[in-house]
Each structure stands twice: as structure tokens, then as C-alpha cells.
Amino acid sequence: MFSTRCTHCRQLINLKTEEVRAAVAESEAKHEKIYVMHCPKCRKLVKLQVKQLKLKIPAEVAATPEPAPAPETAPDESAPQ
Length: 81
Ligand SMILES: [Zn+2]
Known about the structure:
Blueprint: E1 2-5, E2 12-15, H1 17-29, E3 34-38, E4 45-49, H2 50-55
The structure holds zinc ion.
């Protein structure tokens, strides 16, 4: 799940994991670093960083489940630049 807000009307936008995956795949196919979608409320264009979207795709293809004693700090919505 990826959550962001519309930069125009502040509408909260949630993308399911499969939608995020599709967005990343589409962007990579076009060699775009920015994924552009329409806000469901105001219909204006909302630009999303593909890099940020990728972070939200669970690494479920990780073959070797190794014990992780120190969980990494997951950057949440307020990730510093
Ligand atoms: Zn909007």
C-alpha cells in the first residue's frame, strides 16, 4: 500500500500493492522516473516518484529467508530528503 496526497486538493490517495507494481512496471517500460496519475477527486495530475513507489513493493521474491536480528528503520511518509 502506497499513500500520498494530491498536491492540488490534498485528497488522500491510496494505491494497492498491485497498483504500485503496475505503476512501476509502466514507468520503467517508458524509462520514466516519475509516474503520473489523476487525482480521484479533482482529476488533476499527481506526480509520484517511481523511486518512492518501489520502496512500497514488498520484496516477496527474496529467496533466502534469513533471520534478521536488527530490523532496518523503514522510512515512513515523512522521509527526509
Ligand atoms: Zn486532487
